[in-house]
Amino acid sequence: MEIACPVRQSARSSPFVTADARSHTKSSGTSATEPSAPLPVHRDGNVLRWLSAYAASMVGDSVYFLALGWAAAQVAGPAQVGVVMAVGAVPRALLMLGGGVVADRFGPRKVVIGSDAVRSLLILAAAAALWLATPGLWLLVALALLFGVVDALFMPAVGALPTRITSRGELMRLLGFKAFVDRMGRLAGPPTAGFALGVGGPEAAFAAAGVLFALSLALLIAVRIAPVLPDDAVAEGAQRTSAWRELRDGLGYVRRHPVVGPLVVSGAISQIGITPPLTVGIVLLGEERGWSPAGVGLILGAMALGAGISTLGLAVAGRFPRAGLWATVTLAVASVAIGAIGLLPTVAGAAAVALLAGLVSGICGGLSSTLIQANTEPGYLGRVSSVMAFTAVGLTPLFFPVGGWAAGVWGAQPVFVVGGAVSMAAALLPLAARAVWRAELPDKR
Q: What membrane topology does the UniProt entry give (predicted)?
């Protein structure tokens, strides 16, 4: 299939016509190709319900993972705890791309509501089992596996929803708020889990996670999702093929698209370079330099703070000219900054550079994700989202042992330098794609 998806799409082909705009055009006699001006996301009750559902889900995720580790520690040794915590990643990695096919074939709303319902039931059932008895390690392993399977469906479907709940011009603002809510939700998760564990142990923490997932489900059911336009019927699956064929078609779409393809590949390579230094490398660097755990936490906290500030800034601004060019430039700056963390001798210096890295990486991530969503045809959003999620949960963790091995042989400093260089190569990749560095965000309508 010939792919022709310019950055500035016409209103006729836009997937960003909201349900409210459609109902307005019917009542006023205006053509559906000329939607009325939509509400800003911070004033749109439908969008706010979706963001609230997403926040509840993120906090629930954090509570669940901490409760799972705590419960495993009570019935098994450290090695078995590691197995329980890691086993859920296997189905996520193996099934994530298939989850994108399911989201595109059946619609992201159905998939995200169904998977959220199953998550809630699973965790509440685990809470009941722990309250009634003392199950063995097998229950926790089974729970982790099943939760990983459901997550492989949930994550691509969530990634396919933003373009159907807001207008084109509000997309960057929505994704900025989504990124900010994601970070705040993950910060709120550990204290919530700690309180629940202190009050009633793992069963109370599982119950809290299940209630949060149920709250997310109730809010999602109330969210209105815009239907696709007739022009998108073929891409949406009017001509059904096998699931395997749809998966190959989705991967081919990413490979051939002049904007989506380079940005997805660049993001994947960048994560491979950046994530090992910031997970394994930072701990080993702290040991080499004699930094306290609090110092290491300060460095990571500074980067998270910077990213939170910049994503919130994107959400407030709503517009960013020359988005493709600046996404590339900010990734290059972030790559240099992360490489420099390994060269600095003091915690204060490393934290300052980490703050800068967070600020520019938040801008890069927000612009890249908005450009990818804005240039993906509606019928491919689930599969494109699944490719991005697969990189984060399936591909990147494979490089953690490589980073640890390299730090053990050559020290932690080269891990940061090499990781920054790999990420810099990812930043240079879009420069070879003219469509990327000339890409603009959708106009406000």
A: Multi-pass membrane protein
